[in-house]
């Protein structure tokens, strides 16, 4: 009996060891790729401002789609801020997803809206659209407001927006996200600079707005969040976007364009059937289907990321809401892996099947499970008095310092892109955050992920009922 | 001496225009965005003889400023010149439809700028 | 387990010496991680400090430059016809300051002057250029052009072309086919702007596709540079093997309303590439070539969707009324929503709102078609 335990323990230990080593090596590789990609972007940006595009009749048209649900407090400023985006050919489509507050009345009053006979073509099925409004004031001729029956998800709202969009590319964002005024230019640039591939999606860094200073929907100050939980998320976002996504973009293996801000190829998005409103991670789900569509139809495609922060968003500041969000994301990931498992390690699906999918499977989906198992194992070892303390401590210190290094590198890359934050104190504060992350923040994520998987496996519904009503308030902006 | 309000967020452009206007003995107030523009207009009770405005700016773009000015009794007759980049012909058309009196393409030709201002100011007098 | 710290350290050391390889490696990596983290901190610190100092410096210099320019160049009477160069000469005197003797300061000066030149034309713009020459800033630019680093070359090309300083073809032409994308683009732009002989020569030589982004930049340069002699674009539309060059020429044909290139565009309707064909149709529509209508209506049925849409749009733009029946038929019978919408749009564009045809269609159409018609007739909806 003792012997069997020993063998099992050894197998487990070596598996975890190999797993861990591969994970750490791939992080290091990502860090290197990301550095190259970030530097390349910075270099090419230096000499080519976007201003030419502002004045060019050749600029491609862009539809900006922003769903809103009960955003009455800020909706006017937010829409106004969308209207000051710097670009020549674009339209703003705000989808009022059956708000129960006075958002719609406010919009009608502020922008002199009237209902119009709009030839809405439901290429993607959504909950019914009640009315479509345009402004009688020619100043707001770019604005279209769709008033639809609540579809209980961001996916459904965006789909309605896609149906009404006039241009070939659409930018998907949230009404409560604050966008940089150059967002459209920056996002369309990679599409126009790509040589032989069709760029089906472009994303940019998202950053936490919790402590930023806003004035009438215009951001006047950037600060790292003062509260600890949002600050952990800021560090996490920087790591996921600047280090993760930028690394992947060099390899053309970007797994996901965040729902907070992304530009997409409309034709392919529609052909794939748009966002899936039953998904808990609709952004990643759509991305996967778009890639799959492109591969199935032999369209050479690319997904790109740019390291510049173009979108500021508010993140949960209480553990309760945060937990809800992460549980949902984990559930979405499990759902996605389950639905598209046929791509796993299939050479037919190229990088998607051989790199992106396995990576996500092993290091995103399985990571919390393996970590948890590891902890349980060590506790059992301790309980049985079998632990070799110095070895355990050395390994722990190793993982701890390594994770701090990776995060610090991410912060450095982020600073290479742009000198965010005004004061040294802000940056120092940010650099100190990873020291606590390991002990305070990371366990939370593991816990909520496991909860998400559990819900996925049991298909639990009841617990979601009341919060799903406003699904996308808490879950639009996944960084990973 | 005529009073002109210049609304422009680009530093160099505003330096140039301001200087040209001052040289031609106009009194110039300069603001950098839509919000400041509204504030100064309210504050002075639309006490300007002419507005020169850029189109793309934070808070409110040139068209919004134009439309707001046009919807106010004091501002209905106020001449407005749009500053736009070359190649934005569609935008210029849109601006003229909204009631802009004239437009100027960047890079500006100083003589042209002054000519257009004078024409508008004289028209108002006569 | 009550050993002292020293014992603990000793045991760690002992463990390290005789530990399995894995542990030794792990400890090694701990040190690597710590040092890299420290390096990262240091880099962040240095970047921020330098960036902060540079920004402050540039701001100060810019302020000084602005002042000097206001006093010396911008102070001239914009309507006077002084001998050009005279003010620049006095201005150049004023700029002989120690701040502008070092490379960094001169670079700031160049950048600021470029910025001014992009914002003002006429005599004042020329003064800025003369000032650039008098201060011998062009020498700085040429030095950068000789640099081995591509980014410095790009910078030099931008400066020289914006200041319109001639550069020999032999220097620029090889760069237009450089392997570096940014450099290639910058060289093309400079060539178009500066070449005295045949600014469009590289259209013949371009083997790489002209990216959409490059087209935007080229388009701006071609359409805003005054002295460029505009060639007949038909030669590339007919003979170029480079699809992106053809596509770009079509856009230029529209911009310059180049009627003499139309036969070549008409011939392009037979091309196999449907994307290019769609662009040719688009060009014909925007040029309002009434002669093309019959042919467009004739080929309509054999076209893929994107070309069909373009044909419907073109018929609306040309709007001769000759093919109203055709549009009406497409509107009533097509199964595709987009086609019906574009047919309706073209009908409403060419027919006045109260016309017989529109009234008839409004009365007889299905609910969906009626909605499409109303959509197209609504002035608030652009698309």
UniProtKB/TrEMBL annotation, chain B:
Q: Which residues carry this modification: 4-aspartylphosphate?
A: 54
Identify the Pfam families for this entry.
Response_reg (PF00072)
Which keywords has UniProt assigned to this entry? Phosphoprotein
User: Which SUPFAM superfamilies has this protein been placed in?
Assistant: CheY-like (SSF52172)
Where in the numbering of this chain does the Response regulatory domain appear?
Answer: 3-121
The record's annotation in CDD domains points to:
REC_OmpR
| Protein's name according to its UniProt entry | Response regulator
| Upper taxonomic lineage | Bacteria, Pseudomonadati, Bacteroidota, Chitinophagia, Chitinophagales
From TrEMBL, chain C:
Lineage of the organism: Bacteria, Pseudomonadati, Bacteroidota, Chitinophagia, Chitinophagales
Transmembrane stretches, start-end: 20-44
Return the protein name.
HEAT repeat domain-containing protein
Q: Which organism is it from?
A: Chitinophaga barathri
Keywords of the record, alphabetical order, are: Membrane, Transmembrane, Transmembrane helix
């Amino acid at each position: 009996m003792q012997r069997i335990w020993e063998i099992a323990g050894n197998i487990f230990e070596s598996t975890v060891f190999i797993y861990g080593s591969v994970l750490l090596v791939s992080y290091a590789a990502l860090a290197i790729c990301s550095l190259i990609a970030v530097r390349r972007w910075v270099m090419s940006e230096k000499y080519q401002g976007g201003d030419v595009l502002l004045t060019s009749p050749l600029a491609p048209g862009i539809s900006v789609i922003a769903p809103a649900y009960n955003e009455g407090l800020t909706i006017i400023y937010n829409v106004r801020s969308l209207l000051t985006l710097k670009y020549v050919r674009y339209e703003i489509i705000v989808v009022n997803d059956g708000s129960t507050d006075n958002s719609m009345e406010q919009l009608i009053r502020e922008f002199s809206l009237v209902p119009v006979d709009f030839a809405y073509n439901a290429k993607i099925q959504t909950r019914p659209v009640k009315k479509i409004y345009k402004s009688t004031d020619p100043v707001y001729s770019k604005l279209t407001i769709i008033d639809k029956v609540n579809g209980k998800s961001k996916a459904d709202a965006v789909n309605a927006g896609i149906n009404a969009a006039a241009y070939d590319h659409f930018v998907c964002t949230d009404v409560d996200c604050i966008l940089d005024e150059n967002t459209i230019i920056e996002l369309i640039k990679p599409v126009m600079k790509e040589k032989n591939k069709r760029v089906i999606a472009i994303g940019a860094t998202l950053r936490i707005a919790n402590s930023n200073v806003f004035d009438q929907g215009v951001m006047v100050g950037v600060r790292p969040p003062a509260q600890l939980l949002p600050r952990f998320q800021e560090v996490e976002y920087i790591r996921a976007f600047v280090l993760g996504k930028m690394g992947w973009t060099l390899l053309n293996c970007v797994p996901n364009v965040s729902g907070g801000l992304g530009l997409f190829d409309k034709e392919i998005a529609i052909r794939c059937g748009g966002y899936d409103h039953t998904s808990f991670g609709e952004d990643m789900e759509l991305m996967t289907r778009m890639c799959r569509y492109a591969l199935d139809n032999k369209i050479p495609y690319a997904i790109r990321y740019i390291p510049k922060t173009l979108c500021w968003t508010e993140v949960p500041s209480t553990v309760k809401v945060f937990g809800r969000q992460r549980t949902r994301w984990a559930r979405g990931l499990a759902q996605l892996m389950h639905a598209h498992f046929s791509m796993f390690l299939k050479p037919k699906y190229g990088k998607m099947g051989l790199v992106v999918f396995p990576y996500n499977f092993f290091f995103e989906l399985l990571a919390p499970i393996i970590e948890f198992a590891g902890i349980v194992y060590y506790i059992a070892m301790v309980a049985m008095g079998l632990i070799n303390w110095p070895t355990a401590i050395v390994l722990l210190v190793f993982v701890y310092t390594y994770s701090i290094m990776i995060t610090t590198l991410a912060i450095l890359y982020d600073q290479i892109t742009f000198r965010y934050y005004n004061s040294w104190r802000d940056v120092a504060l940010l650099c100190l955050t990873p020291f606590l992350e390991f002990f305070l923040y990371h366990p939370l994520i593991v816990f909520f992920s496991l909860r998400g998987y559990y819900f996925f496996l049991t298909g639990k519904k009841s617990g979601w009922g009341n919060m799903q009503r406003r699904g996308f308030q808490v879950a639009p902006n996944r960084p990973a | 001496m005529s009073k002109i309000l210049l609304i422009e967020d680009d530093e160099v452009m505003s330096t140039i225009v301001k200087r040209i206007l001052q040289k031609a003995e106009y009194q110039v107030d300069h603001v950098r965005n839509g919000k400041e523009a509204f504030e100064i207009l309210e504050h002075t009770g639309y006490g300007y003889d002419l507005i020169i405005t850029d189109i793309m700016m934070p808070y409110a773009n040139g068209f919004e400023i134009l439309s707001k000015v046009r919807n106010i009794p004091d501002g209905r007759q106020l001449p407005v010149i749009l500053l736009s980049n070359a190649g934005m012909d569609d935008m210029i058309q849109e601006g003229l439809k909204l009631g802009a009196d004239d437009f100027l393409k960047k890079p500006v030709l100083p003589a042209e700028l002054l000519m257009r201002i004078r024409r508008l100011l004289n028209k108002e007098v006569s | 387990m009550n050993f002292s710290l020293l014992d603990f350290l000793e045991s760690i050391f002992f463990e390290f010496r005789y530990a399995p390889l894995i542990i030794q490696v792990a400890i090694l990596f701990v040190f690597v991680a710590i040092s890299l983290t420290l390096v990262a901190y240091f880099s962040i610190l240095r970047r921020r400090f330098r960036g902060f100092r540079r920004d402050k410096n540039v701001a100060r210099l810019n302020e000084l430059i602005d002042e000097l320019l206001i006093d010396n160049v911008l102070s001239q009477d914009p309507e006077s016809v002084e001998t050009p160069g005279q003010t620049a000469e006095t201005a150049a005197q004023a700029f002989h300051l120690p701040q502008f003797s070092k490379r960094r300061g001169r670079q700031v000066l160049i950048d600021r002057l470029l910025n001014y030149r992009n914002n003002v034309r006429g005599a004042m713009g020329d003064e800025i250029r003369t000032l650039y020459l008098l201060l011998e800033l062009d020498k700085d630019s040429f030095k950068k052009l000789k640099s081995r680093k591509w980014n410095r070359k790009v910078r030099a090309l931008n400066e020289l072309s914006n200041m319109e300083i001639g550069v020999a073809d032999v220097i620029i032409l090889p760069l237009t086919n450089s392997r570096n994308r940014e450099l290639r683009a910058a060289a093309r732009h400079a060539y178009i702007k500066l070449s005295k002989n045949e600014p469009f020569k590289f259209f013949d030589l371009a083997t790489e596709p002209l990216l959409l982004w490059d087209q935007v930049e080229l388009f701006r340069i071609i359409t805003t540079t005054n002295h460029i002699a505009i060639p007949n674009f038909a030669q590339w539309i007919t003979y170029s093997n480079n699809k992106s060059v053809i596509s770009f020429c079509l856009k230029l044909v529209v911009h310059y309303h180049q009627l003499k290139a139309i036969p070549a565009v008409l011939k392009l309707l037979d091309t196999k590439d449907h994307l290019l064909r769609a662009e040719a149709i688009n060009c014909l529509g925007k040029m309002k070539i009434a002669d093309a209508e019959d042919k467009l209506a004739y080929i309509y049925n054999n076209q893929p969707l994107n070309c069909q849409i373009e044909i419907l749009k073109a018929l609306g733009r040309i709007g001769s009324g000759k093919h109203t029946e055709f549009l009406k038929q497409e509107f009533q019978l097509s199964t595709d929503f987009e086609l019906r919408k574009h047919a309706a749009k073209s009908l409403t564009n060419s027919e006045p709102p109260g016309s017989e045809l529109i009234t008839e269609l409004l009365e007889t159409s299905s609910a969906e078609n009626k909605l499409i018609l109303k959509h197209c007739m609504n002035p608030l909806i652009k698309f």
